[in-house]
Write the structure tokens for this entry.
Amino acid sequence: MKKIPYLYNNYSPLKQITMGLDMYAYRTKETPAEEVDFNVKNEELIHQWRKHPNLHGWMEELYYQKGGAEDSFNCVNVQLTKDDLLKLRSDIEDNLLPYTEGSFFGMTTGEEKEDDLEFIDKALKDIDEGYTIYYSSWW
């Protein structure tokens, strides 16, 4: 049996928390002043991934291209524009997400493609409705 690394939360030593890469996309009506390293007060979760490191690697490259300043791409926000999402769609369809690995990141298998494309369609629709879309992660 494979052992899974875990932590116990501060509230209950009986509740196990599995470590790994958790990834989120949010929408907000707020317009951040910058495309990276911003905070918003009101957001709504629109999509979630678990251990999809190649997508995370793509987002990390985008973060630094947009001027991201943090040494570690963890718990930071990066805005996804319409152009970003169209490029992401193209890279997913052409299997061009960068191979990415990290502690407890898991592995991208290719089975995520349909889910990724559904996210992009949803995010593009939200942008057309006046929302700002952004990505964040925690590992």
Observations:
- The mean pLDDT is 88.
- Residues 21-138 form one domain.
